[in-house]
Amino acid sequence: MHSRLPLACRSLTVGVLLSALLAGCSASVEPDEAPRPSKPALASTPAPESSATSEPKEFSLMVTGDVLVHPPLLEQARSAAKSGNGKDYDFSALLAGLKPYANDADAALCNLETPIGTPPYSGYPRFTVPAQILSDLKSIGYDGCTTATNHTVDAGTSGVNRTLDALEEQELFATGSYRSKKEAQEPPIIQIDGIKLGVIASTFSLNGLPEAADWQVDTGVDAQKLIQRGKSARQDGADVVVAAIHDGTEYSNRPTAQQRKLGRELAESGVFDFIYMHHTHSALPIEKHDGTWIVYGLGNSVAKHATKTILNREGISVKATFSHDEKSGDWKVSQLQWVPHMLSQSPVAWCQVFEASACLPEADAKSSLARTTATVNAYGAFDDGLEDWKIE
């Protein structure tokens, strides 16, 4: 595992990649554990240029599905906080299973489904959740989140701004929603071991709610527009570009025809090095198309749906390792690894299902593993090189 260099809040030009962070990303806004040595705190100055001989030849990125804090998870976190730890909400037990995986990658990105709010918090159809979820994500190793989802504007402009303020306070990278037009125009680039990673996020819908301005949220699943955004990130200095798309049919185990067409068009463009999707609250297949990996659905990281289906308790996390080809100068995914999980019932917790654990009954873990494996491999991912991600 590489040590991490600082991540930018939303960086932005090559010359000011990190200097903007502690000054804060410009905006018009409304009012645990110690850091791990492998993930040093964010800095306000750019990392020095590396010599050709010391430049990293690879880095790894972990991506996970929706962080969807339903009211039962709020109650669980509030009860956990009564242990006298000084928190109003404590999500650490809910998230604990993810920690070794986040620590095994050079950067870890979540998808923050809902806006940060103020009490009283709310659930479906218009969510608000406490900011404590972000500090607990940070404490287990996350470096940022995408924020373009169908619930992004559930709490209006104040919710968008509050969410980005809270992410910035935790020094977490964010892209997909914005507090100002200027912020929306800044390239969505983070730096990992000196490598600039562009993250192009977008959502298919805002559930019929209006944006305050057309720049507030990255919306739309038009392939050509996404490709153009990817090209712009390249022009702004991104070495690697990934797409994070919020799309699909809920509680399904296959992508829609439109979703698969989109993934393949993005892959065929040559602009994106890796493509992943979320929204369905269920695991979907992984496919290698035209030399590019596409993850059609990560499922939930954490959730507790009122809709009772086994599929919304299951999901996957993926680690993509990118390697540099010295001859071509290109970065490509040289290894793709996956770990399936199931959410336990009471209390809810993220539980890997590759191996037996105290987290789930053995029979539940085995049946979940068989079901999710069949889904993930529907398009031949294992024959194309997908590997199991197991922590020793």
Automatic annotation (TrEMBL):
Domain of life of the native organism: Bacteria
Record key words, sorted: Signal
Region (Disordered): 29-56
SMART domains: PGA_cap (SM00854)
Stretches assigned to the Capsule synthesis protein CapA domain: 60-305
Annotated signal sequence range: 1-27
Protein family (similarity comment): Belongs to the CapA family.
Protein name, per record: CapA family protein
Source taxonomy: Bacteria, Bacillati, Actinomycetota, Actinomycetes, Micrococcales
